[in-house]
Design brief:
With 329 residues, the chain is mostly helical. The chain is built from 13 helices and no strands. The radius of gyration is 25 Å and the shape is elongated.
């Protein structure tokens, strides 16, 4: 009898406070402008709820939930104390990585779709030599064959003035990424379709060079800039999927409220890619033409792998870990 009475009391406790807890969760997802005193008052109320739950329901899911909510609220208050300092750095080193972490599953879906399409493009080229012409065009294929025969398979990157190439390539890559993201407004299938298109092109491209015994040198060339560029396109696809996820799977929120949250995360992700496309455009314009210089190309590829691993994987994970491991007061 005591057990059922305790359950009934806990249910009443949840019913009385659930709406306020949901409001706090929404604030943490999309913080509104409030004074430090208002944040402190809400934190005191939440701490009281946690203390009550720890006293009467110490092993319940409610206590665990309130403890995690209190930790997140504590961290948000701590950040708000420094609201006027380092805002620019916090945006790029905290807020955007947090968006990446929340969108980790859409990003994984984007990566798997891209890798599968790379395999499809490569296999199709190996099975049908005309497939690469369908994907890349006769003009490009014939030009590349002539370059291979001359001993300079990636000569296409040596043409053109560097500065003009830099502006054109960077702008084009940014537009492609933003288009991939914006297509998420129409549903997840559209950014996935963009990823499949780009993946098939990459697979066909690399398989084509393999057929002409030039895979190693071609990879050494395109991955100087492609490591960052291709990763950023995949992330843009993940941002598009994240955008559509809010409307399709609202969870406990209203469909519009959840859509606003995922749209905000997706936009942060898309904006966070702009510096990477600038770096990739610079590398493609000024460094890729020197692809035969192994002492330059290999270190650049390694540094690029380290940069994207740090920003897209390590930093989001560490920001999430920091936010959820501080002890509750």
């Amino acid at each position: 009898m005591h057990f059922w009475e305790s359950c009934m009391k806990e249910a009443r406790f949840i019913k009385l406070n659930k709406e306020r807890w949901t409001e706090l969760e929404q604030m943490l997802q999309s913080p509104k402008r409030k004074s430090p005193d208002e944040w402190a008052d809400m934190y005191v109320e939440l701490s009281d709820d946690l203390a009550f739950s720890q006293t009467f329901y110490p092993d319940s899911n409610t206590t665990g939930y309130l403890n995690q909510l209190a930790i997140r609220f504590h961290n948000r208050i701590y950040r708000n104390k420094k609201e006027d300092r380092g805002r620019f750095l916090r945006y790029w080193l905290e807020e955007i990585p947090e968006s990446f972490y929340r969108a980790r599953w859409p990003m994984l879906i984007a990566l798997l779709a891209f890798l599968l399409s790379v395999l499809i493009g490569a296999a199709s080229t190996m099975l049908d030599q005309d497939f690469v012409r369908l994907i890349l065009g006769d003009g490009y294929v014939d030009m590349t064959i002539r370059n291979i025969e001359r001993g300079d398979p990636m000569a296409v990157y040596a043409g053109g003035e560097e500065s003009a190439m830099f502006g054109m390539i960077t702008l084009n890559n940014i537009m492609v990424a933003l288009m991939t993201f914006v297509l998420g407004y129409l549903g997840p299938y559209f950014p996935i379709a963009m990823l499949i298109r780009n993946g098939i092109m990459l697979g066909a491209f690399q398989a084509f060079f393999y057929q002409y015994d030039s895979l190693g040198i071609s990879a050494q060339a395109i991955w100087i800039h492609g490591t960052i560029e291709i990763t950023s396109i995949v992330v843009a696809g993940g941002a598009g999927i994240e955008l559509s996820k809010g409307f399709l799977f609202p969870g406990t929120y209203t469909r519009m409220e959840r859509f606003k949250q995922t749209a905000k995360d997706g936009m942060k992700m898309a904006l966070g890619l702009i510096p990477f496309f600038i770096i990739a455009g610079f590398l493609e314009s000024f460094a890729t033409r020197h692809y035969k210089t192994t002492a330059l190309s290999i270190p650049l590829i390694i540094i690029s792998i380290g940069l994207i691993s740090w920003y897209f994987i390590y930093l989001p994970y560490m920001k999430h870990k920091d936010e959820h491991t501080e002890p509750a007061p």
